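Bumping my old thread because nobody answered last time. Still need a sequence for this structure:
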């Protein structure tokens, strides 16, 4: 079976159906994947870009983004790198009202058992098991 990476713009056209001409082409591609004709590879950076565009440009609420992406990433025909990590980060992104990149960083830190994160962003304080350390105030 052939394998190919998928760029964020293809995912966005499929998910938003905007614009219709490229959305239709994207739909056909994902149908081919679902039917076993091709395996589509999706990287975490691609997911991060899709989440950012859905939130910033399309102004989708975090709940809708998280639900949509969790459902989409679980589809047949997709090979999603670090799928379990991404699914957990999407849940944290919504539940704690974080930026997706911060949620992904927090989940990665937790899994690597390095729970300290140097950051000025106080939103990390919302995450159990993560110690936010402000540069200049404390050294580990």
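Sorry it took so long. Here it is:
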């Amino acid at each position: 079976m052939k394998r190919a990476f998928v760029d964020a713009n293809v995912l966005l056209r499929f998910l938003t159906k905007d614009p219709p001409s490229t959305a239709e082409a994207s739909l056909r591609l994902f149908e081919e994947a679902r039917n076993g004709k091709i395996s589509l590879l999706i990287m975490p950076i691609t997911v991060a870009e899709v989440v950012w565009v859905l939130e910033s440009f399309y102004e989708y609420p975090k709940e809708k983004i998280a639900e949509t992406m969790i459902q989409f990433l679980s589809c047949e025909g997709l090979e999603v790198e670090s799928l379990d990590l991404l699914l957990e980060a999407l849940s944290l992104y919504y539940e704690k009202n974080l930026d997706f990149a911060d949620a992904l960083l927090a989940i990665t830190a937790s899994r690597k058992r390095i729970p300290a994160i140097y950051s000025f962003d106080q939103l990390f304080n919302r995450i159990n098991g993560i110690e936010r350390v402000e540069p200049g105030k404390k050294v580990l």
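The helical segments are 8-16, 20-34, 44-56, 62-73, 83-95, 100-111. Let me know if any region looks off to you.
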